[in-house]
């Protein structure tokens, strides 16, 4: 008969063994508790923080998204507008929230350019957030007064070169997509347009209609109805490709600046360390939402191009945007006032 083998532990090993077993049991308990929480997500109201005032384009997209994913997830999704400091206040709110999937951020162009505009951000846009999904890209359009002799992008470039510093363009908000679209145009066309800053699109368009300024790079939502009614003349779209909403309108690149592209975008984020199953659940909800009839209507009304895709796709896109605008912001010495 074989003798059973007995493993003898050293004194120190024997003392460590209960601690090892206890640690393993504790880890299993944590995993066991976390799994049901993730499996039942969502179990309560979800909040999407919009770092802008209500009524703007980002707010409209957030509310449409909230309505669609609420139906998908089976729980209410509410919007909390927290404007201020160029989106920093609302963004920081999400960065410091619990990573449980119940507080989300509807981010836009500012998320990629704020690190270049502000060296003292109270959060890290990469380390403090978990990407959920890119929602859509958004174009700007170049518009002039219909009485202007400028009828195309080549006309605008020629007029600016012939009269350096005499043409002016309206901007609204330092570092906004509309502002940087104009700065990119100036840099690539090697022209000097005088910048006139406004508090919003409405007063800038009012002065354009009145002939006080010459051109604006503006959002579709702010100008589409005026273009359609003949009160403004659209010269081009700022995206790399033509817009389905304006199929006959050329791009700035087609108008004589090859490689020109300037666009805004909208993406959904959660706080860093949000569990992967929750991120996946939200990502799938966004993918279904942007195929809805409500988002189809926004494609033409807001000049959107629906995107979707994996969280990694949003990460790569924003990193590319951050890199491409960093140089322009530095070269043009653009700073937050």
UniProtKB/TrEMBL annotation:
Signal peptide: 1-39
Record key words, sorted: Receptor, Signal
Lineage: superkingdom: Bacteria
This protein's record includes keyword Signal: yes
Keyword NAD: no
Pfam families associated with the record: TctC (PF03401)
InterPro entries cross-referenced by the UniProt entry: BUG (IPR005064), Bug_dom1 (IPR042100)
Similarity-based family: Belongs to the UPF0065 (bug) family.
Protein name: Tripartite-type tricarboxylate transporter receptor subunit TctC
């Amino acid at each position: 008969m074989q003798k059973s083998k007995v493993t003898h532990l050293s004194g120190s090993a024997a003392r460590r063994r209960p601690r090892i077993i206890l640690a393993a049991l504790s880890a299993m308990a944590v995993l066991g508790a976390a799994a049901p929480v993730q499996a039942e997500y969502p179990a309560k109201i979800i909040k999407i923080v919009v770092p802008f005032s209500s009524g703007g384009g980002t707010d409209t997209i957030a509310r449409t998204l909230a309505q669609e994913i609420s139906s998908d997830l089976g729980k209410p999704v509410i919007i909390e507008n927290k404007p201020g400091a160029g989106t920093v206040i609302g963004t920081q709110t999400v960065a410091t929230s619990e990573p449980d999937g119940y507080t989300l951020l509807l981010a836009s162009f500012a998320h990629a350019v704020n690190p270049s505009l502000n060296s003292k951000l109270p959060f890290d846009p990469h380390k403090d957030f978990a990407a959920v999904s890119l929602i859509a890209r958004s174009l700007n359009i170049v518009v002039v007064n219909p009485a202007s002799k400028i009828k195309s992008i080549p006309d605008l470039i020629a007029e600016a070169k012939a009269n350096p510093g005499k043409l002016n363009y309206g901007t609204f908000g330092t570092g906004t997509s509309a502002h940087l679209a104009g700065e990119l145009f100036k840099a690539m066309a090697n022209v000097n347009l005088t910048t006139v800053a406004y508090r919003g699109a409405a007063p800038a368009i009012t002065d354009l209609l009145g002939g006080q300024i010459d051109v604006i790079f503006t959002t579709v939502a702010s100008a589409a109805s005026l273009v359609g009614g003949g009160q403004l003349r659209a010269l081009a779209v700022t995206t790399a490709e033509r817009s389905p909403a304006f199929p006959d309108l050329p791009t700035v690149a087609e108008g004589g600046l090859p490689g020109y592209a300037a666009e805004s975008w909208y993406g959904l984020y959660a706080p860093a360390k949000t569990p992967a199953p929750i991120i996946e659940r939200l990502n799938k909800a966004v993918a279904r939402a942007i195929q809805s009839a409500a988002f189809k209507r926004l494609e033409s009304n807001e000049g959107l191009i629906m995107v979707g895709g994996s969280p990694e796709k949003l990460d790569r896109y924003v990193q590319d945007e951050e890199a491409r605008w960093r140089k322009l912001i530095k070269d043009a010495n653009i700073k937050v006032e």
